[in-house]
Design a protein that fits this description.
The structure holds two protein chains of two kinds.
Chain A (H helix, E strand, L loop, with lengths): L3 E6 L3 E10 L1 H17 L4 E12 L1 H16 L3 E5 L3 H9 L7 E2 L10
Parallel strand pairs in A: 2-3, 3-4, 4-5
Antiparallel strand pairs in A: 1-2
Chain B lengths: L1 E8 L4 H13 L6 H22 L7 E9 L2 E8 L7 H4 L16 H8 L2 E7 L3 E9 L9
Helix pairs in contact in B: 1-2, 2-4
Classes of the chains: A alpha/beta, B alpha+beta.
Amino acid sequence: MQNEMKISETEDALVVFFYGDLDHETTLRYRDHLVSCIEESHQPSVIFNFKHVHFIDSSGIGMVLGRYNQLVKSQRRLYLSGLHGSVYKLFDLTGLFKIIQCLDEDKEVEAK
Amino acid sequence: MNRMEMHFDARIENEAFARTVAASFIAPLNPTMDELIEVKTIISEAVANAIIHGYNGQSEGQVYLRLETLDHELHIEVEDYGVGIQDINQACQPLYTTRQDLERSGMGMTIMDSLSDQMQIESIPEQGTKLVISKRFKHGSDSQA
């Protein structure tokens, strides 16, 4: 699967789908675009969907924390969804769930 | 016993290359899917540290990856001849990072330590760093998984 990021909007949220690997190379590649999309959007919440992520390392955790901090500054919320297997484990291992809420079910619609 | 060694340029795209090589190398041991991903994560963190911190963007630097399998155990060495670590204890603290600008989480060492059975760091400032890690596979080569 190709590594990519797709961003769409629902009525009340900006939804970001990640595909493939989230490692140091891809997170650095996505960062500036993601930061400006969140900056320009006025949605009260942002949802990161990891359903199609096959691999994640500490840089993925760093990216989530970075965007969480960005959103907190404008009193907005970040939610995680589509967590599975190894992705869930790494988030759990690093204590991310203590500050960021995980949605039970991913109902977000993928951008084409 | 089976051994391999390779070295490659300190370019960040080689993180994916290194973990893919490691995954192929350990396949004959029949690791579980979880164990396979854990090894890929360990290799990624170690190699990214060597590239980002050890060589600090000097892509001509060489990162060495050595793997050795013996029965149900994998022995990993990742070595660079970069700047070295001034204070190993500090580098291993969760959330500690010297590169705030890159938005890395500062969790790399913690993640590697949690996923491996043993981890040892040897580093000399201005000479380089070597990570020595071992990981045992629970089911090993007689697994059906």
